[in-house]
C-alpha cells in the first residue's frame, strides 16, 4: 500500500476535497505502507485536496508533574526539574503518524503543554490558533473549531478509546468527569508549575460503548484501508449523540 491507496481508501469512506479531518491512527494496524507514516499523511492530504486540512492530536503527557500530590523535597525537586517544557517540536507519544505531521513542512501546532493539536493544510493556522490552559479539549479549543467546521473524524486502525473528540463531547456534559493537569510553564521567563482542571480520562469505560452505539445506528462509514478497520464520522451528529449518551451514563 502507498499514499495513493491511502487516498483512495479515505475517499471511499466519504472524505471529500476541502474537508477538515482529525485523524486518530495506528501505523502498524495498516500493514505494510510504502513510505511509512509520511505516506499516510500524504495520502490523507491528497484526499482532502489543497483546500482541505488534516489535524491530529499531538498530546504530550510527558510534560507533567511526576509527583503531583507530593509537597516536595530535594529528590522530588530534582525529578520535577527534569520534566521538559513544551515546545513546538516536542515529540508526541501518540504514534508515528502524529509525529509525521509534526515533521511536515508548514505544519502548525497549538500551544497547550499537554494536549496540543497539530495540523497541516489550508486552514491549519486557524485550527491551532486558540487553546485554553484549562479544559484544553473543551470550549475554545481546536476541537471546538473542528466541530464548528463540521470536521470528519477519521479512525485509521484504532477504536473509540483513541477518539479524542469524545473528550470534547464530555466537556459539554455538566456532570462530566474531572481531572487535574499539572505542568511546567514559562511565565515572564520563569519556569513555574501550573495547575488546571480538565475532563477526566475514560480509560476504556464508556467511550468504546458510545462509539459502537453510534456506529450501530448508522452514523459511521466503515471499511478497510490496507489491513486496518477504519471509520469516518461526521463530528456534529457524533458529538450530539455522545453528549446525550454520556450524560445518561455518567449519572
Automatic annotation (TrEMBL):
Any coiled-coil regions, as ranges: none
Annotated InterPro entries: Amioglycoside_AcTrfase, Antibiotic_NAT-like
Reactions accelerated catalytically: a 2-deoxystreptamine antibiotic + acetyl-CoA = an N(3)-acetyl-2-deoxystreptamine antibiotic + CoA + H(+)
Presence of the UniProt keyword Metal-binding in the record: no
UniProt entry keywords in alphabetical sequence: Acyltransferase, Antibiotic resistance, Transferase
Keyword Transferase applies: yes
Pfam families hit by this protein: Antibiotic_NAT (PF02522)
Enzyme Commission number(s) from the entry: 2.3.1.-
Protein family: Belongs to the antibiotic N-acetyltransferase family.
Entry-linked PANTHER family: AMINOGLYCOSIDE N3-ACETYLTRANSFERASE (PTHR11104), SPBETA PROPHAGE-DERIVED AMINOGLYCOSIDE N(3')-ACETYLTRANSFERASE-LIKE PROTEIN YOKD (PTHR11104:SF0)
Protein name (Swiss-Prot/TrEMBL): Aminoglycoside N(3)-acetyltransferase
Amino acid at each position: 500500500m502507498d499514499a495513493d491507496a491511502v487516498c483512495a481508501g479515505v475517499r471511499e469512506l466519504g472524505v471529500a476535497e476541502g474537508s477538515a479531518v482529525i485523524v486518530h491512527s495506528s501505523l502498524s494496524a495498516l500493514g505494510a505502507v510504502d513510505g511509512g507514516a509520511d505516506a499516510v499523511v500524504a495520502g490523507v492530504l491528497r484526499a482532502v485536496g489543497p483546500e482541505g486540512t488534516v489535524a491530529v492530536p499531538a498530546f504530550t503527557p510527558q510534560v507533567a508533574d511526576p509527583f503531583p500530590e507530593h509537597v516536595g523535597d530535594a529528590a522530588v525537586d530534582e525529578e520535577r526539574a527534569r520534566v521538559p517544557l513544551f515546545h513546538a517540536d516536542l515529540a508526541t507519544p501518540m504514534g508515528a503518524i502524529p509525529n509525521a505531521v509534526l515533521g511536515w513542512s508548514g505544519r502548525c501546532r497549538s500551544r497547550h503543554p499537554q494536549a496540543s493539536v497539530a495540523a497541516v493544510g489550508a486552514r491549519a493556522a486557524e485550527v491551532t490558533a486558540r487553546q485554553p490552559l484549562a479544559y484544553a479539549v473543551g470550549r475554545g479549543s481546536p476541537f471546538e473549531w473542528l466541530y464548528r467546521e463540521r470536521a470528519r473524524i477519521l479512525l485509521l486502525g484504532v477504536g473509540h478509546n483513541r477518539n479524542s473528540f469524545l473528550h470534547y463531547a464530555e466537556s459539554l456534559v455538566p456532570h462530566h468527569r474531572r481531572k487535574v493537569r499539572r505542568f511546567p510553564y514559562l511565565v515572564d521567563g520563569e519556569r513555574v508549575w501550573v495547575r488546571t482542571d480538565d475532563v477526566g480520562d475514560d480509560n476504556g469505560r464508556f467511550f468504546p460503548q458510545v462509539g459502537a452505539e453510534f456506529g450501530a445506528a448508522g452514523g459511521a462509514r466503515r471499511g478497510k484501508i490496507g489491513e486496518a478497520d477504519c471509520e469516518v464520522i461526521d463530528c456534529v451528529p457524533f458529538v450530539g449523540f455522545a453528549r446525550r449518551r454520556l450524560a445518561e451514563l455518567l449519572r
